[in-house]
Amino acid sequence: MGEEGETLQQQQQQQLMNSDSEPGEITEEPSYTWPAIRLDAPPHRAYHFHRQFRTSSNPNNFLKGVKWSPDGSCFLTSSDDNKPDYSADVDACSLAEDSDTDSYAATSVVNAGESVYDYCWYPFMSASDPVSCVFASTTRDHPIHLWDATSRELRCTYRAYDAMDEISAALSVGFNPAGTKIFAGYNNSVRIFDVHCPGRDFEQHSTLRGNKEGQSGIISAIAFSPTRNGMLATGSYNQTTAIHREDNMELLYVLHGQEGGVTHVQFSKDGNYLFTGGRKDPYILCWDIRKTVDIVYKSSDTTNQRIQFDIEPVGRHLGTGGQDGLVHIYDLQTGQWVSSFQAALDTVSGFSFHPYLPMAASTSGHRRFQDLDDPIGNSSLTGDENCASVWSFSYYSAEDNVASSNTRDLDGQLVETVCKDPSL
Predict the structure, then answer these.
(1) Which of 403, 355, 361, 16 is nearest to 179 (CA)?
(2) Residue 112 gets which letter from DSSP?
(3) Distance between CA 336 and CA 321 in Å, rounded?
(4) Pick from 166, 126, 164: which is nearest to 143 by CA?
(5) What span, in angstroms and rounded, lies between the C-alpha atoms of 260 and 282?
(6) Taking CA 50 as the corner, what is the angle to CA 45 and CA 55, rounded to the nearest 5 degrees?
(7) What's the confidence (pLDDT) of residue 374?
(8) Which residues of 287-297 are buried (b: 16+ CB within 10 A; e: fewer)?
(9) N or C of the chain: less Cβ packing under 10 Å?
(10) 299 φ/ψ sector (left φ>0, alpha ψ -120 to 50, else beta)
(11) Do 222 and 174 contact (CB within 8 A), yes or no?
């Protein structure tokens, strides 16, 4: 990355770290604008990784998701080998000449011991401040862990217990926008931990009411509104999404319509819309939070895996993967499919836009069951299967960027339609 890009990131992080605003207060955004990417040409693959995810003990290991750090200096991936969190610097070195070799080794690898359910970055993480370089993860039969992304040390744990006084694992985790609390999803409840008070102290809020109304089931996804308007969305395996107030977890309304258990929720950049995706559900639903009217976008084939999607920082386009190995881009104003590019030769399970640069990261892979007649069948995997890649997009000039800025608001006319991918 160039010096100019690094300077812009440092300026934005300094403004965030010096902010004295309250969680519900909207602060003035920095003047930096994410460049408008060109979608008439496929992106260039800048970095590629697959070797380090395959070992003799688990040659069929696959990746389950990817998340950029808030400052854009590195990204996390979750894997099936119970070493879910790989932190890799995007500016660590140049692309390897040998296509069968990883571009560079992961900066750190954390062994969680059990299957990872969810993970998230501290919202004010900055590579220039080692104290802030942490992320939280939750794994099966374990408490919530706060890891140091640099040293791989365990900073602290946040423990919840059930009625038998045994550890209860969270199925989803998320920092509130102020970075002071960790919200964790459990069965029929959300527990809130104070970041500065690790241990077993927490607030517990039932997602059900006395008359059995509300949101039931395992809370599998959590998202906060980026505008700091105090709204929180929770997705459940019972195919519903609920909107709450962050300060007291008051239930505002429950959204029905997903065909599968909700596995991913994300607000639009203006906070007025919510996008949800489900397991074994071919649709991403767009909800107008002000009217609770849904608009449906076609996303991917039916799969048991979580398919992670993301919205570009400009807020105009949504990118999502699928079983066809493609990343599909949709226009959020019209719901129309815009373009796609080949990211892998198997299921693209994760996709994430870079927060500042015209780049994105993708992960791929799925569970393969070994053929008893072919005990070494795993050796046939190519470099484009069970892999992670970083993509660099072409982008418009500053003049074109300004000219198109008046069309980026999602509050334009939204068309209620089902958008079908031409490749299906």
Answers:
(1) 16
(2) -
(3) 16
(4) 166
(5) 9
(6) 175
(7) 52
(8) bbbeeeebbbb
(9) C
(10) alpha
(11) yes
**Reduced 3-state DSSP string for 350-400:** EEEECCCCCEEEEEECCCCCCCCCCCCHHHHCCCCCCCEEEEECCECCHHH
CA distance 179 to 111: 25
Angle at 33 between CA 29 and CA 39, to 5 degrees: 140
Instruction: Tally helices (H) and strands (E) across the chain.
Output: 2, 28
pLDDT of residue 91: 43
pLDDT computed for residue 62 by the predictor: 82
Which pLDDT belongs to residue 329? 93
Rounded-to-integer distance, Cα 343 and Cα 43, Å: 10
Q: How many CB atoms lie within 10 A of CB 243?
A: 21
Instruction: Give the pair of three-digit tokens for residue 135.
Output: 């992320």
DSSP 222: E
Where do we find the tokens 């408008």? 36
- Report d(CA 246, CA 252) in Å as an integer: 11
Say what the pLDDT of residue 206 is. 93
List per-block mean pLDDT (blocks of 10 residues) for the chain, which spans 424 residues: 41 43 44 82 92 74 90 89 54 43 83 87 94 94 93 93 89 96 96 96 90 88 91 95 94 89 92 89 85 58 74 92 90 87 91 95 81 53 85 81 49 34 38
Residue 267 Cα distances to 37, 229, 276, angstroms: 21, 12, 9
Burial 136-166 (b: 16+ CB within 10 A, else e): bbbbeebbbbbbbbeeeeeebbbebeeeeee
- What is the Cα–Cα distance from 245 to 350, expressed in whole angstroms? 28
From 221, 165, 216, 163, select the one nearest 188 (Cα to Cα): 216
Q: Which residues on neighbouring strands pair with residue 221, listed in sequence order?
A: 235
Q: What is the pLDDT of residue 419?
A: 36
Q: How far apart are CA 332 and CA 319, in angstroms?
A: 10
DSSP letter (8 states) at residue 131: G
Cα 40 to Cα 132, 268, 316, 410: the distances in Å are: 38, 24, 15, 21
Q: Report, in angstroms and rounded to the nearest whole number, the Rg of the chain calculated over CA atoms.
A: 21
CA distance 87 to 340: 27
CA distance linking residue 349 with residue 59, whole number of Å: 18
